């Protein structure tokens, strides 16, 4: 019987859970007595375990990066454009590991999990998690899988920050780091948008300072607003003009009656759909991890010094119309790597799709990523 | 006794009210049986009444554009940088009229006014007002003041749109139109930010679908959020980096405890202050007027055709770091005016202060505006 899935899909996948049973101390000083990470793998680990690739997700991502959980699943994982047989992250070559980060809301320990110390969900009491904590917990997952060194650690946006942090914190465990549509730290404007999103959540009367689960409610409107704010920053002005223009969904501008532009209806839908699939406390936690990311903090704001100890080869990719993390921000990373005399390739991809470009099937992007990883595969092959 | 005010200030000013006692039909089809416009004037109207200049305000502006309402007033009117003796809008030469627009919340008829038909405040029932309605009501104010023709109609942002509309609707009543940091119509991204702001207001449990006054409440949080969203779009990424960087107001990033960046604290303050001085229904009304503005709608999206009938000379000014209404949007206006063979001067001002630049004392901006208006003064002088 022929497969129900496209030939270049990893097909049916299922998730697994790694339970770390020992205490794990976060950078904030709080110790979790144990934690779970839910993850998926695609492709096969080779005998010397040298072909593993780690996928790090962004703000609202999860472990389900490729393939389908069932024959009925309408859409594949969030990065199915890039992961699969013959795709840039080629599962014929690589063993791909994709996890839901600590603090997430898709199965890993986070605000929705039960706090073993209280027997109740953590909710807003889940401790502050920073990018370095994610990397440390991902290293424990790698230990569990017997992976001493990743052929590549890859991520877009907040995922790209994790790839950078891996190269800094575990120089010997990363052959290549692929940093896509990221920044070495957030700008005041980035932080401002994140804070407004958090304020929108906090202002929802159903948020109850994060204790909405106990109140059997959910801050749907606040979380929807937060998503709408984020979403506008993921798209470009030109891309939105192309997609929506000033087309009306309903109403009559002359009468000022029930006017709804297409772009408004699209945003409402995005906001509502997000509220159904995401947890507000996790959203707050993830945006704070973004705000706090700053690998140069320990080196007196000197990014070059922070990157000195890395040993990975880097690929830094940015997109022309991305205004959330612009080309300029990626250049800061590449320039610092070059100043630190590291092996870095960089590519600026023409795209009108803004920050979201990193999830899209843009030919030059796919080609750049595929070529780089093909070389990585040759380098790690015995 | 020396004046308590700077020498180049118009000094102590007071507002007046123009009551239009006859029916006024808005573009939406609703007829107001009467309306009030509160306004201020600075300088003296010359005998032939040819030296009047109309100032049109932006989203959150009002009639108090220059001078002080009392000796104790901490700050002068919102455009005091440009209006006064010896300033670009020189009150030694011009008679300056500045009003609060219809639908406003600073004394003109609007949601806070009593609906004569019901004896209750209009609240959310105040009808939809578009830019053309403002211009029509401003023309009635001009009639009242005996001003047949304005030497100049001037505005920034939404105010610039009114200046454009004046030139289109009353070609014989405008000698010069000064369109600053504006656009011929909003982009999908502009509309998106406005809609998110409106959603934030609507989601506030104290909004009561606009009937908050009757409930003796106010949607402070929602209006504050709306202002924060708007405010980020008024500043540039570089300007915010310069002003705030990643400086902390409080907390310790390492501990993830009570962390507040300076930019967050600034935005909170802006949001709270705005909620105290502005009305939520008016904010909704004003943002819709922005969204609906599109002088080319009646000419099949052909801006050149829409501008054919104008007779004013134009000055179009934009600012390099303005991403709300970028330089490109002003170029669209200038290009259309040139294609329509109109008299148009345009200036792109280098500034890192984003959309807010139009309110600031930037030397080249002040000089361009002053030079243009000096010529206008010569032209209208007998």
**What is the highest CATH level, the class of the largest domain in chain A?**
Alpha Beta
Strand arrangement across the biggest beta sheet of chain A: 1-4-8-5-11-12-15-16
User: What percent of residues of chain A are in strands?
Assistant: 15-25%
The number of domains of chain A: 2
Number of helices of chain A: 10
H and E order of chain A: EEEEEEEEEEHEHEHHHEEHHHEHEH
Architecture of the largest domain in chain A, according to CATH? 3-Layer(aba) Sandwich
Task: Please name the fourth-level CATH homologous superfamily of the largest domain in chain A.
Answer: Alpha/Beta hydrolase fold, catalytic domain
Give the low-confidence spans of chain A. none
What would you call the shape of chain A?
A: globular
Based on CA atoms alone, the radius of gyration of chain A comes out at: 21 Å
Question: How is the CATH topology of the largest domain in chain A named?
Answer: Rossmann fold
Q: What kind of sheet is the major sheet of chain A?
A: 8 strands, mixed
Query: Which percent bin holds the helix content of chain A?
Result: 25-40%
β-strand number of chain A: 16
Mean pLDDT of chain A: 96
User: What's the multimeric state?
Assistant: homodimer
Structural class of chain A: alpha/beta
Straight-line distance between termini of chain A: 37 Å
Largest chain interface and its two residue counts?
A-B, 57 and 57 residues
């Amino acid at each position: 019987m022929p497969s129900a899935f496209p030939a270049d899909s990893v097909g049916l996948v299922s998730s697994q859970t790694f339970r770390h049973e020992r205490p794990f101390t976060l950078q904030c000083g709080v110790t979790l007595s144990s934690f779970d990470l839910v993850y998926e793998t695609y492709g096969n680990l080779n005998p010397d375990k040298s072909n593993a690739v780690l996928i790090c997700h962004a703000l609202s991502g999860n472990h389900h990066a490729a393939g389908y959980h069932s024959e009925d699943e309408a859409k594949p994982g969030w990065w199915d454009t890039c992961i699969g047989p013959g795709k840039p992250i080629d599962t014929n070559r690589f063993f791909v590991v994709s996890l839901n980060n600590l603090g997430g809301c898709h199965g890993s320990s986070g605000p929705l999990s039960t706090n073993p110390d209280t027997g109740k969900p953590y909710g807003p009491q889940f401790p502050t998690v920073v990018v370095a904590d994610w990397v440390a917990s991902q290293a424990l997952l790698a230990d569990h899988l017997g992976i001493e060194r990743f052929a590549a650690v890859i991520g877009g946006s907040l995922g790209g920050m994790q790839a950078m942090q891996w190269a800094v914190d575990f120089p010997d465990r990363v052959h290549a780091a692929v940093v896509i549509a990221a920044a070495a730290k957030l700008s005041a404007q980035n932080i401002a948008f994140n804070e407004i999103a958090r304020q929108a959540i906090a202002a929802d009367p159903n948020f109850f300072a994060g204790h909405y689960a106990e109140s059997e409610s959910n801050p749907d409107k606040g979380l929807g607003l937060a998503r709408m704010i984020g979403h506008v920053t993921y798209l470009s002005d030109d891309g939105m003009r192309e997609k929506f223009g000033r087309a009306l969904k309903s109403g009559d501008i002359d009468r000022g009656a029930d006017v709804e532009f297409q772009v408004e209806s699209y945003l409402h839908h995005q906001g509502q759909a997000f509220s159904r699939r995401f947890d507000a406390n996790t959203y707050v936690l993830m945006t704070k991890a973004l705000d706090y990311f700053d690998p140069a903090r320990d080196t007196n704001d000197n990014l070059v010094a922070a990157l000195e100890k890395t040993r990975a080869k880097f690929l830094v990719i940015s997109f022309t119309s991305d205004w959330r993390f612009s080309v300029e921000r990626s250049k800061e990373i590449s320039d610092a790597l070059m100043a630190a005399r590291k092996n870095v390739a960089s590519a600026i991809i023409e795209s009108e799709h803004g920050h979201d470009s990193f999830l899209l099937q843009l030919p030059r992007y796919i080609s750049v990523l595929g070529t780089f990883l093909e070389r990585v595969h040759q380098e790690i092959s015995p």
